[in-house]
Amino acid sequence: MKAMLALEDGTLFTGRAFGATGEQWGEVVFNTGMTGYQEILTDPSYCGQIVVMTYPLIGNYGINREDFEAKKSFIRGFVVKEACDYPSNWRAGYRIGDFLAREGVLGISGVDTRALTRHLRSYGTMRGVIATGAVDQAQLVEKAKNCPHLSGQKLVADVAVKETYAIEGRGPRVMLIDLGSKQNIIRKLRERNCAVIVVPPDITPEQIAQIGPDGVLISNGPGDPVDVPKTIATTREIIGKYPLFGICLGNQVMALALGAKTYKMKFGHRGANHPVKDLRTGRVYITSHNHGFSVDEESLKGMDIDITHINLNDNTVEGIRHKYLPLFAVQYHPEASPGPQESDYIFDQFMDMMRGEVQ
Ligand SMILES: NC(=O)CC[C@H](N)C(=O)O
């Protein structure tokens, strides 16, 4: 079946449907990972977005039963050059097209993803609509022009837990403020024997005090960070009271709680091959990214905050740390392993911080 992607600036791409059928709108973004499509499809931070993969063959190792980042996919659409129908891997449970159909995600293959990515890179992230079957092109462009922007949508509420739940462990008790957390964050804490108390985004400082965790981790999540004012207000209240660690959206929330600013990037960072430099050690790590917003470096000036990490592609802020309070955060994903486990040390730093060994 034919499928079409229309961008808000009137650009059209045609291809074939390979997942669910129908119509869906979202913000069109590109990801440069050569692998990791299963994690991308199930990362709740992509809620509200249509993802274009730059790597030309997607689905070749299938979908397995172990690597899900969430119980379901929140992605709005998936755009590839070639979708592989015959996966080959000992862990492959099912085909990518079947997975998309089951999850109700529209997939479109046969698209010139290089041209599409170059377009988004030149003109920036845009809204778009995917439709399968016979479509009216002019109408589709109209819909892309009129669909909501990512900012202003309450996407975190769609993906975060509504009720608190706890996972036992004999180590430190970590409260995870869930804005749409990837499962791997929980796995990394459990590997370190942490007890994890997963709480909704609207948790209050009083409720946190009742639970009395050893540390608080603010998770990744979808949308514009300014769209979670309650979590920002709660974070502001607990700064200095508990060791605090933020990942991605959690990093942005932390920066906003401290009084800094965030801004929308032209086309963001999405991929598993971003070089990030730890300014304290001078070491460079290849890291996994998924963000369209960034902490404004200028707005950190004069604050008791050190920039600990930068992205070597564009020098944007990738990590912050308070000069004397137990608080740090990273913009990239230390829980993901785009190869070796080298960003694991970030979780070890959080463990040290909870033990009172602030470096
Ligand atoms: N992975 C994330 O947490 C993404 C954070 C935020 N939604 C952004 O796009 O910048």
Question: What can you see in these coordinates?
Answer:
The chain is α/β, with parallel strands linked by helices and 359 residues long. The protein folds into two domains: 145 residues, Carbamoyl-phosphate synthase small subunit, N-terminal domain (Glucose Oxidase, domain 1, 3-Layer(bba) Sandwich), CATH 3.50.30.20; 200 residues, Rossmann fold (3-Layer(aba) Sandwich), CATH 3.40.50. Helices cover 24% and strands 31% of the residues. The strands form three sheets. The chain has a ten-stranded mixed sheet with strand order 10-12-11-13-14-19-18-17-15-16, sandwiched between helices. Strands 1-2-8-6-4-3-9 form a seven-stranded mixed β-barrel. The protein has a two-stranded parallel sheet with strand order 5-7. A hairpin with a 5-residue loop joins β15 and β16. α8 crosses α9. The longest helix has 11 residues. Glutamine binds next to β16.
Bound molecules: glutamine
Beta-strand proportion: 25-35%
Order of strands across the widest beta sheet? 10-12-11-13-14-19-18-17-15-16
Number of strands: 19
Shape: globular
By CATH, the topology of the largest domain is: Rossmann fold
Kindly report how far apart the N and C termini lie. 57 Å
Largest sheet, if any?
10 strands, mixed
Q: Which range best describes the helical content: under 10%, 10-25%, 25-40%, 40-55%, 55-70% or over 70%?
A: 10-25%
* CATH architecture grouping of the largest domain: 3-Layer(aba) Sandwich
CATH class call of the largest domain: Alpha Beta
Give the tally of structural domains. Answer: 2
Spans of at least 5 consecutive residues whose pLDDT stays below 50 are none
What's the number of helices?
10
Structural class: alpha/beta
Computed over alpha carbons, the radius of gyration is 20 Å
